[in-house]
Amino acid sequence: MDYQYQLYDAFSGMSPMEKSQVVQFLTEQEGHSECDSIREAIEYAMKLKPSFGGFVLVARHNKQIIGAIIANRTGMEAYNPKNIFVFVTVEASYRRQEAFVKQLIDQGVKYADGDIAMHVKSDNPALAIYQKLGFKAQYLELRLPNPKSSPAVAS
């Protein structure tokens, strides 16, 4: 199949309509992600918020978005990866097409320029594909919600 890739970054920019399309696509496909989180990741990638930048990569087939990566640069290299793929999302009917998922990731890796981290839930069906592409689990992530906005932690 013929896929078209569009790269957006701080230099190319992204129109409000393009941003809205990406937010809508990710919201529909991710299900668990909030529009505000997606917008924030895009704004960091586009340097619309103070950040180290990044990029948004969109894959289309017949002008419809079928895949997207939002990558944020971390500003670190020595002890954390230089990039984090905040969102890697593929339209539901393309998720089983390993060649497409691989191509999307390969395009993202090409633009990342440095080490890449990605948060993936253990039940994500694409986990095996990511591992085939060389991504490895190195750490178990533990999170503490903002203690100032959460109930007291039991001791």
Characterization of the model:
The chain is α+β, with helices and mostly antiparallel strands and about 160 residues long. It contains four helices and five strands. It has helices at about 15-30, 35-45, 100-110, 125-130, and strands at about 5-10, 55-60, 65-75, 85-90, 115-120. Strands 1-2-3-4-5 form a five-stranded mixed beta sheet, with helices on both faces. β2 and β3 form a beta hairpin. α1 (about 15-30) packs across α2 (about 35-45). The model has no long low-confidence stretch (mean pLDDT about 90).
- How far is it from the N-terminal to the C-terminal residue, by CA? 56 Å
Radius of gyration, in Å, reads 16 Å
Average pLDDT over all residues:
91
- Judging from the principal axes of the Cα atoms, what is the shape? globular
Largest sheet: 5 strands, mixed
Low-confidence stretches: none
